[in-house]
Design goal:
Distance between the termini: 27 Å
Number of domains: 1
Number of helices: 3
Oligomer: single chain
Largest sheet: 7 strands, mixed
Shape: globular
Number of strands: 12
Length: about 210
């Protein structure tokens, strides 16, 4: 996945990837499904005030593995011009709403990208995990807020440098469903499918902020 595209911008609507990520932005799971049986996925990608990366990509797939998609936010990617939905001094966030075919899905991994000049670093979980959710016709499914928290490391000279992030998964439906309905007035009934980090069993998906 190219972290910075050369042309084009994302200014509104769901963005599965950077503007030139053709496969992601045109796949059946890109968020632009037009079938009359479509449902809605609502997910918030956020970053704590002390966390700043080029982009985050939360990957999901159909339960049978036949198709893959992702929810992407270019936090400091100059080509992502979407207005922040949340910017309160403690966190910045995008509330992503996408139309998907009905079916069973699972969130399985993520990418955290940092681009500087010609250098690029990408971090993800070494092992896939599973956060299941179901999309039903005409209904919205809320899977929670994924708040990125920076992980620090040391370089060759002993200097503190960014070393990826973990995500705090929280249910903030009262705030975020209202924002989602502003983007998609067709949303009426909402099902909660916020995963329990204790059940997910991956240290990079947590229910609280910690010092790794």
């Amino acid at each position: 996945m190219v972290a910075l595209a050369l042309v084009g911008c994302v200014e509104s609507g769901p963005a599965s990837g950077p503007p030139l990520a053709f496969d992601e932005n045109t796949s059946p799971l890109s968020g632009k499904y037009s079938g009359s049986d479509a449902g809605y996925l609502v997910m918030t990608l956020a970053a704590r005030s002390d966390t700043s990366y080029t982009a985050y990509d939360m990957a999901f797939r159909t339960k049978d593995g036949s198709a893959r998609g992702s929810v992407w936010w270019g936090q400091t990617n100059m080509f992502d011009r979407r207005k922040l939905d949340i910017d309160d001094g403690q966190e910045k966030a995008i509330v992503d709403v996408r139309r998907l075919p009905p079916g069973d899905y699972e969130i399985v991994n993520f990418d955290v990208d940092l681009v500087g000049g010609v250098a690029r670093s990408t971090w993800r979980s070494k092992k896939d995990f599973s956060i299941p959710f179901t999309i039903a016709p005409g209904r919205a499914t809320y899977v929670g807020e994924f708040l990125a928290v920076r992980i620090n490391g040391k370089n060759f000279f002993g200097m503190t440098v960014p070393n990826g992030a973990y995500f705090v998964l929280a249910d903030k439906a009262e705030r975020e469903i209202a924002l989602a309905k502003q983007k998609e007035p067709g949303i009426a009934e909402v099902t909660s499918a916020v995963g329990d980090p204790k059940i997910i069993g991956n240290p990079l998906i947590s229910d609280h902020i910690y010092s790794p």
